[in-house]
Amino acid sequence: MFVGDSFTVGSGPVPAWRTYASETGRLLGWQPVIAGAGGTGYLNGGRVGRTFQRSFEVELAWRPQPDVLVLSGGHNDQRWSTVRVGRAAERLVEDVRAHWPGTRIVMVGPIWLDGAPAKAYRVRDALARAAGREGVPFLDPMRERWVTGRPSDVMLPDGVHPTAAGHERIAAWLASELV
Fold first, then answer.
1. CATH of domain 2-178
2. If I label 122, which of 88, 128, 131, 153 is the partner at 20 to 30 A Cα–Cα?
3. Is residue 19 classed as helix, strand or coil in its secondary structure?
4. Which segments constitute the SGNH hydrolase-type esterase domain (predicted)?
């Protein structure tokens, strides 16, 4: 299962079945269940008014326990205190563990394809610390170099979201990290 933002659930011309979450599932032979919405985060409710915590509660918690839950985001949490973002991430991990004690939890930091602002690194660092305190693996997509040719190969014209090819590249990276 995945909980995330527009990178996870799809945005623009990239539908849910072509996102990195779906592609990762295909690469690993999983049947992914994907929850979340564009603009959301650990504290940011986006247009749907629902944080990752609430997405977990209403979209996933009623389902059977998964083998793996990937918490992916932070991109939309820049306006919040990094301390509060970290606490919200810890609370979500604790709630998932209480609900599904046997589920492997993996946290993926904010995805920025190119030119992340300084605040994004602070959010990433807060999430990495939260993951460490909770004893869950933290994967850092901001360490990767996504744009290696023309930006339009991996990034939509909005300069933020991945193209289908960008999602495939993220999925290949994530699948290799999850094995």
1. 3.40.50.1110
2. 153
3. coil
4. 2-169
Strand spans (E) along the chain: 2-4, 34-36, 68-72, 104-108, 138-139
**CB 55, CB 36: distance < 8 Å:** yes
Which tokens hold the place of 172? 């290949």
* CA distances, 101 to each of 3, 67, 104, 158, 173 (Å): 17, 10, 9, 40, 27
In DSSP notation, 1-18 reads: -EEESHHHH-BTTB-GGG
CA–CA separation, 42 and 148 (whole Å) = 30
Instruction: Output the CA–CA distances (angstroms, integers) from residue 121 to 42, 63, 140, 143, 145, in the order listed.
Output: 15, 33, 10, 10, 15
Q: What's the CA gap between 87 and 92, in Å, rounded?
A: 9
**pTM for the complete prediction?**
0.96
The amino acid that residue 152 corresponds to is S
Structure tokens at 131: 């993951």
21-69 pLDDT, tens digit per residue, is 999 999 999 999 999 999 999 999 999 999 999 999 999 999 999 999 9
Strand arrangement of the beta sheet that strand 34-36 belongs to: 34-36, 2-4, 68-72, 104-108, 138-139
